[in-house]
Specification:
CATH architecture of the largest domain: 3-Layer(aba) Sandwich
Number of domains: 3
Structural class: alpha+beta
Largest sheet: 7 strands, mixed
CATH topology of the largest domain: Rossmann fold
CATH superfamily of the largest domain: von Willebrand factor, type A domain
Number of strands: 24
Oligomer: single chain
Distance between the termini: 79 Å
Length: about 600
């Protein structure tokens, strides 16, 4: 049959539609940023015909530092007169390169139909941005494969829960978690802080109601019940209360020197050093270190490396001093850390595998010597790849979760880091062989979510600020959870002396009295014996005998990391004396051989 101009007898023409362009502008948006104005983006959602479910349609560009954006990108839609085409516009303040909207600040939303826009004068419709009357105050972990879950206890400021208003309505929602993010709504109930605090156990058992099921099903009663086990309100103390009371924050850096980073001499290496830009490792060190150094009185930081072959004989080490001074691995300030990092690269050979447990156990051995709350430890691990000793790492983290220690892991480079999320207990508490971590002490973020590229521009500085904000946001809560669990109250602030500065200038001459002894030689204060070379390098790692924190077995060049389960821990021995060994000790400078070794 002939076809004249698209005319096909016996067929039906698709519903005729007209293309419509929608342009979005906003005025007087909320400013969510501290160092600058919000960076808004508009996300358009469309609803399927006959349903109330919205699906994302498209996004505009991001407009930097603007509370009154006029978005250039237009939304192009098919318009059908006979349909009610429901639209929802959501505005977010973009804080990183992540595509996940829940990682960004929500600024508001507006809903309308496409017909409302086209029917308005001049096809212009002005809508107020609505911010939900409820905001998320807390999310529990998910518990798999059970209809009778008991979630772990959590602590939340009353101000965050109800702004101090005990009669303000609190809504609790329950979902069936799905790994793809499409969680299924089970039901909800409403209460208030006064009822939670003063009600009897029977009065604090709530039926979960699913409004849709209730409207559709006759005889529907509930979708289960949730009972409050315990609710107490305690006078709060802050992270700052402990800091002003004298608690020291000790910062340690661990750097991945495995071969997957690429040869440092090549421009595409993650360890490539250039005079006009900083690499990914330098970005991570500066972003986190510049914040944490303010809480360390003398700004001396131990820096460890792992995954490299080291002089003089090329043995593989997963716990060596980056400044090549085993007895004194401290670097003076963040600039000292950066200098030691750059200086060591010509003297090591990048190798592998990627083992985290030795550096975690290293810091944990120090942390266990301070059960009194006088010191808290933060370990920053910067890595480009997937962990090779995952079981050992899980075991080390679970052991360390009872100690005054937090672990920050920053992933650099293009690798997929999905396995790292297992270590971050935001969604589910870390477990291994039937043992659970006492608390979540790990925060993992990929650097690429915050840094679009490397460089020294102001945009790179802003990216570093956002990275620091993300990775350090959980540290105060982790710090407080450990102090609370162990019943440690902050010491009173020391009295201010006449003419004394409120913040004395930090010294870089010695560690304060009581600071844990770092990487001592075998004869000093019981530190586990290490095999050392003429340069003071750690040539291999031997099993220490400290309480509960094994090191790795010896790993020689070309060897593989042991695949068996973590070894049984030894009984405690005398170690980690707290005398002021550093009364006249300065930060060690790199002491590498005069020429790079040939392995």
């Amino acid at each position: 049959m002939s076809n004249f101009g698209g005319f096909q007898p016996g067929s039906a023409t698709a519903n005729p539609s007209t293309k419509v362009e929608i342009t979005v502008s906003c005025r007087n948006l909320i400013d969510k940023d501290v160092l600058s104005k919000s960076d808004p983006i508009c996300v358009l959602y469309t609803a399927q015909l006959g349903t109330d479910k919205f699906a994302e349609f498209e996004r505009t560009e991001i407009i930097q530092n603007n509370l009154n954006p006029d978005f250039v990108k237009k939304f192009i839609l098919d318009y059908y007169f006979e349909e009610c085409q429901r639209l929802k516009f959501e505005i977010y303040d973009i804080d990183s390169a992540s595509s996940k909207l829940n990682r960004h600040d929500f600024l508001g939303a507006a809903q309308c139909s496409l017909g409302q826009i086209l029917g308005s004068a001049g096809n212009r419709l002005q809508l107020p941005l609505q911010i939900s009357s409820f905001t998320i105050a807390h999310k529990t972990e998910y518990i798999k494969n059970t209809l009778d879950p008991t979630w772990r206890e959590f602590c939340i400021p009353v101000a965050s829960l109800c702004n101090g208003d005990y009669d303000r309505t609190i809504k609790v929602e329950c979902y069936d978690w799905d790994s793809d993010g499409s969680d299924d709504f089970i039901g909800e109930f409403r209460t208030n802080m006064r009822h939670l605090r003063e009600g009897t156990p029977h009065e604090n058992t709530y039926e979960l109601i699913n409004p849709k099921k209730k409207a559709k099903k006759k005889g529907y009663k509930s979708s289960g019940t949730i009972s409050l086990i315990k609710c107490t309100v305690e006078a709060g103390v802050s992270f700052l209360d402990y800091i002003t009371g004298g608690t020291q924050v000790n910062f340690t850096v661990a750097i991945d020197f495995t071969a997957s980073n690429g040869a440092p001499s090549q421009a595409n290496s993650l360890h490539y050093i250039s005079g006009n830009r900083i690499n990914a490792y330098e970005q991570a060190i500066m972003a986190v270190g510049q914040i944490l150094q303010d809480y360390d009185s003398d700004k001396l930081f131990p820096v460890l490396g792992f995954g490299a072959r080291i002089p003089p004989d090329g043995r593989v080490s997963h716990e060596f001093a980056v400044n090549f001074n085993e007895q004194n691995p401290f670097c003076a300030g963040i600039q000292g850390v950066m200098q030691a990092y750059k200086s060591c690269l010509p003297y090591i050979q990048l190798h592998g595998p990627t083992n985290f447990s030795p550096v975690i156990n290293h810091v944990a051995r120090f942390a266990q010597a301070y059960p009194d709350g006088s010191n808290y430890f933060i370990l920053l691990i910067i890595t480009d790849g997937i962990i090779s000793d995952m079981d050992f790492t899980k075991d080390a983290i679970i052991k360390a979760s009872s100690l005054p220690l937090s672990i920050i892991i920053i992933g650099v480079g293009p690798a997929e880091f999905d396995a790292m999320e297992v270590l971050d207990g935001d969604k589910q508490i870390l477990s291994y062989r039937g043992k659970n971590a006492e608390r979540d002490i790990v925060q993992f973020v990929p650097l690429r979510d915050f840094v679009g590229g490397v460089g020294s521009s102001s945009s790179a500085m802003l990216s570093q600020a956002r990275l620091a904000k993300e990775v350090l946001a959980e540290v105060p809560d982790q710090f407080l959870s450990w102090m609370k669990k162990h019943g440690i109250k902050p010491n009173p602030s020391p009295p201010q002396q006449p003419n004394q500065q409120s913040h004395p200038a930090p010294t870089q001459q010695h560690k304060p009295q009581g600071y844990p002894v770092p990487m001592q030689s075998p004869s000093q204060h019981g530190y586990p014996a290490q095999q050392s070379s003429q340069y003071g390098y750690q040539a291999s790692m031997q099993q220490p005998s400290q309480q509960g924190y094994p090191g790795a077995s010896t790993v020689h060049a070309g060897g593989s990391y042991p695949g068996q389960a973590p070894p049984q821990y030894q009984q405690p021995t005398a170690a980690y004396h707290t005398q002021d060994r550093f009364a006249s000790q300065t930060a060690a400078q790199p002491t590498a051989p005069s020429a790079p070794p040939a392995f």
